[in-house]
Write a structure and sequence with these properties.
This protein has one domain. It is built from one helix and eight strands; from the N terminus they run E-E-E-E-E-E-E-E-H. The strands form two sheets. A six-stranded antiparallel beta sheet has the order 1-2-3-4-5-8, with no helix packed on it. It has a two-stranded antiparallel ribbon with strand order 6-7. Strand 6 and strand 7 form a beta hairpin.
């Protein structure tokens, strides 16, 4: 092995910040990790954001040049989806308000890390 070769650069950023919050309680996430997953779109690296809510477990989402459409409950960072029961209803993902914007608004240049677009739609209850 060539001792002069540069060491591989990690794709993961640890102990960093994300606009994502717990989709159940809206609390801050701990143990946040961001993984770069590929190419560039409009100058934005594709990423997966993951973080842990101390009360509700791990969540993650992908951003690909636009804010995320949904946030997933996962078993661990970058892991498999898991089922969460909230108010008697089963959820595997939580839609964000980005989905509620008109097509014209979604086509406008947008900062994919703008926190207002990462907010989760209100959860419906079995009665609604």
């Amino acid at each position: 092995m060539n001792s002069l070769a540069p060491s591989p650069q990690s794709r993961d950023k640890l102990r960093t910040r994300t606009p994502m919050r717990c989709p159940i309680c809206d609390g801050s996430l701990a143990k946040v990790m961001i993984r770069d997953i590929g190419g560039l779109t409009a100058g934005t690296t594709w990423q997966v954001h993951a973080g842990e809510c101390p009360q509700h477990g791990w969540f993650q989402t992908e951003i690909v040049s636009r804010p995320p459409r949904e946030i997933f409950a996962v078993t661990k960072p970058f892991g498999a989806a898991r089922r969460v029961v909230v108010g008697g209803r089963e959820h595997f993902s939580f839609s964000t308000v980005w989905n509620d914007l008109s097509g014209d608004e979604r086509r406008k240049p947008t900062d994919p890390l703008e926190a207002k677009y990462w907010q989760v739609r209100p959860l419906s209850t079995p009665d609604s």
